[in-house]
Amino acid sequence: MSVVNFEKRRYIIGAIACIIVLVYIVRLFFLQIVNDDYKKNADSNAFLKKIQYPARGLITDRNGKLLVYNEPAYNIMVVMNEQHGIDTMDFCRTIGISKQQYIDRMAEIKDPRLNYGYSRYTPQLFMGQIPAKAFSVFQEKLFKFKGFYIEKRSIRHYATSHAAHILGDVAEVNPAEIDSDSYYRSGDYIGKLGVEKSYEKDLRGIKGVKIMIRDVHGRIKGHYQDGKFDRVPEPGRNLTLGLDRELQALGERLMQGKIGSIVAIEPSTGEVLCMVSSPTFDPHLLIGAERGANYQKLYANPHKPLLNRAIMGQYPPGSTFKTTQALTFLQEGIITPHTYYPCSRGFWHGRTHVGCHGHHSPVELNFAIQTSCNSYFCWGFYHMIMAKSKYGSCSNALTRWKDYMVSMGFGYRLGIDLPGEKRGMIPNAQYYDKWYKGRWNAQTIISDAIGQGEVMLTPLQVANLGATIANRGYYYIPHVVSKIQGRDLDTLYTRKHYTFVDERNYRFVVQGMRNAVLGGTCKRANLPGIEVCGKTGTAQNRGHDHSVFMGFAPMNNPRIAISVYVENGGFGADYAVPIGALMIEQYINGKLSESSMATANTFANKIISYGNRQR
Amino acid sequence: MATDNVSAKSIFKSIDWVTILLYLVIVTLGWFSVMGATYNFGDAITLDLTTRAGKQLLWIGLAMIWGFSLLLIDDKIYDTFSYILYVIMMGILLITPFIATNHKGSYSWINIGSLSLQPAEFAKTATALALAKMMGTYGFSLSRTRNMVQACAIVFIPFVLIILQRETGSALIYLAFFLVFYREGMSGSVLFIGISAAIYFIVGLRYNMFNITYTHTSVGEFAVLTLIWIFTLCLDLVYDKDWRNARHMFLGGLTILAIAGIVTRYIHIFDISWVLLAICSGCIVYLCTKAILNRDVKLYLIAIFTLGSLAIHYSTDYVLNDILEPHQQTRVRVLLGLEDDINGAGYNVRQSEIAIGSGGLLGKGFLNGTQTKLKYVPEQDTDFIFCTVGEESGFVGATIVLLLFLCLILRLIHLAERQNYAMGRIYGYAVVSILLLHVFINIGMVMGLTPVIGIPLPFFSYGGSSLWGFTILLFIFIRIDASRNRYN
Questions:
Q1: Reduced to 3 states, what is the DSSP secondary structure of residue A135?
Q2: A51 vs A604, residue with greater confidence
């Protein structure tokens, strides 16, 4: 080959150089422009963002009395990379743990499956919420424990031991919560139950940040750009609840030793005045280091104290449901206030029989409500469902009926601002078609008319029924939070919801309920000076019947609507009515009379035996 | 004396100022990078000799003096003394491990007073000169085995000596001289085979664990076999007068591959790499048959290339596990992404990628890089200096630096080609090859593209030895180039 040939190789060598540089520029382009993973990584590497935790919002009752507040507490943090050569025995003794606990906790921290986002260069939570006293000893010895740090946090405190279900609690975030909201970092606290959970975003505030520069060894090199990008934390919003602290306390006292619930609503606003679920628990149990163990204990209790029966319990409404039937039949023109139905110790039609207690016959609406006549409402229901000329079929009739029920807030969640609400049950035609394979009629489902059968309501829905009747035809979605500092309440809670029934028809029902108190089933709710309207219920149950009361007061310009459920309490009049009356008296008068006080003590000491079965 | 003055003047007239300018710009940018890499947040900017930036300024000043002095020295001495220089240098390399102190496991640094020097950096120049002298001798031809062996010996003596100092990275740079051999007539196929083998090795291992979607075929296997097939076709196209052979092998292979694709997609999933192996084997058989029929030796050679490629490919696992040393294995594995050991060998590469990546389009600004300065990146002012460029001046700055190096290399190729004497040209190409390989490996490793081999970025990395080494290497060539027309 001649030399000339080789000379051309300069182009090949030049091309190799060009290709290399070109490939590298492309690589740079991907590293620096396309992919921003690297940028994020660099930020978390070189900046130590010291989070400044905001104070969580306070919670007060409707009268401004404090319910939940903050107290300082301390977290012990550890940076694994810096932690070495400490006297483990001394350390354990100081914070009161065993050596094994120390070893286990260290292993937990290092396990990325348990400790999400673990890094040995960043502070990890070793032990949370150390009370101020234990902390002071630790702080003195801190210099000996290299790699351990203290982080000041606050711990939730409860002013009373009441309303645990409503207030809820806070606990460390879990990995799923960290994933779903970028606000949280490992070791943060989040509301887990009650208002703490449903108003988490208001209560938590906005975190502040101090950006520190640090080198690869984690040593702090000072403020980044003299704190230009630092942010002061914004405290969380304070909440005012509709709750009346005294009323709640009385309710919890009255329900001692009984399973059930009391829900009271202010009809003119939908604010929840009290919400008792019994058995309850002391919210202090779920604070601090003991939270986990106590939670397990409560969870294992067969009577399920953690369950908020007021919104999660689903019961047959019993006779309180008759008011809804009266309203529906009146509005649909099935009955008039002067329609008479016979009752000879019950409803008899074909092979169907629904029993009733002894009273004169026939009865009209007012007296039917007053005395809680089963037969009257069965006949009304029968005539509505079988009104083929009006509705075309049983199915259509039942659908119409169901729509009335839904308009009154049944069958779906009302939408209270607490987590875990249940929807109850209003059966529809499809349900019975499936159940009875299409062969059903009014007789088959007659017990729905008296709040038995397939109908299930939550105590909240029953209380809301009381509020709706008190308002003569509308309700606000019940809510426990009445005011949020710095923003308006969700319009969801300030909008009236009208039922399908006219105000004029409500008046007949109100009158019936007033008569029930004056001379019917609710006589024990007849308070001097307060015009109480009420309706008892005796919800049939596999065991002993549930005692139910639904009412409101005063009759005109009502201030409180209430539902009381006492599981296995027997007749409505036995437990629910007197308890309801005491609650109404307490709220309207602000105190109990002396005789009522005695009654209250009696009921507070009454214990119903439930055994140890899971409930 | 008067004639000397005249010659000095004429020399400065014929100096290639473009190269000098490029050199000055690169060195200046390099100094700013060292400054950026070693600056501590909050410190006042001082340039005394306690800081690395201050020291580097001194090294740069001295380098300028060496460079200027070299321009004054008559280039005839290189012709005369190159062998002697080479022998002296090899002697120094030989004794270095015995007098050197342990520096991170290598024995390549000699302490002279407070100054540490790395003889290996200067040996490159001596080797390049000796090689240029030898290959520039009249009648020397690489196609003659004897001469080839001589040239290789010149290269391999320092190669081995530096390996003895446990500086494998610096030693690998001597492979750059094969590019010079290529320019001077070594068969291109040697270069081609070498590069191909490297590609098979890296691609095969890198993508071995991933399967092509919906098949049982590993991406690495598929890619390497396809490359072997395509390389075979390319060789045939270049060396075979009958282009129909390449066409037959291409269309035949494509048909078989298409059928296999349909079968695996719709009928039965199997490993397509076996089909590719069959295609490659088919090519070998086809080439051999044609070679016999046409009596064409070149076709045999192509077939041997294909066969050898297959052999290399199927022996990479063996090479990795049984030939390389454990720490080299780890480096290769981490580089190829086979091991994700963030805090081990891969940590450096990962951190340097983060540093460069965080620079964005325009960078964080001079002295504002957080990653490099806070010592996340190791060797930030020496081997990983390019991180600082990427972080502080972003994509734009890093690209400019790359283009500056490209300009310098292309300029040097141009200068080398205009030499009237083989020795000048060969020396020029030696400079080109050394610079190119340094830039290729150093910047590649910082961006995670090439293995982490501890070699400096020319004119950028902190340190007197490397800066002076490269300056001397370059300025000798500038001086040789300046007097190219002396006897005309």
A1: helix
A2: A604
What's the token pair of residue B88?
């002296």
Give yes or no for B397 touching A (CB within 8 A): no
Question: A25 and chain B: CB distance < 8 Å anywhere?
Answer: yes
Please count the other Cβ atoms lying within 10 Å of the Cβ belonging to residue B160: 12
Whole-angstrom distance, CA of residue B235 vs CA of residue B305: 9
Domain spans, chain B: 2-184+340-482, 209-334
Pick the CATH number of A48-239 from 1.20.1560.10, 3.50.50.60, 1.10.10.10, 3.90.1310.10: 3.90.1310.10
**Identity of the residue numbered A532:** V
Would you say the CATH fold of A245-281+308-605 matches that of A48-239?
no
Does the structure's ipTM exceed the value 0.90? no
pLDDT in tens, A326-373: 999 999 999 999 999 998 888 888 888 888 888 888 899 999 999 999
Q: What pTM, to 2 d.p., does this model score?
A: 0.56
Q: Which of A9, A18, A21 sits opposite B182 (nearest CB)?
A: A9
Is residue A255 a contact partner of residue A163, using CB atoms and an 8 Å limit? Answer: no
Mean pLDDT by 10 residues, chain B (488 residues): 51 86 94 81 62 86 91 86 93 88 74 80 92 88 87 92 81 88 83 80 64 68 86 83 83 89 80 85 89 84 87 76 68 55 56 80 73 62 85 90 96 91 91 94 84 83 89 93 71
A 136-165 residues with CB < 8 A to B: none
| Interface subset of A 440-479, CB within 8 angstroms of B | none
Q: Is A17 on the interface with B (CB under 8 A)?
A: yes
Annotated domain spans of chain A: 3-35, 48-239, 245-281+308-605
Q: Domain A245-281+308-605 belongs to what topology?
A: Beta-lactamase (3.40.710)
Token pair in block for residue A119 = 């890094």
| 3-state DSSP percent of chain A in helix, strand and coil, to 5 | 40, 20, 40
Contacts of B390 in chain A (CB under 8 A): 28, 31-32
B370:A7 CB<8 A: no
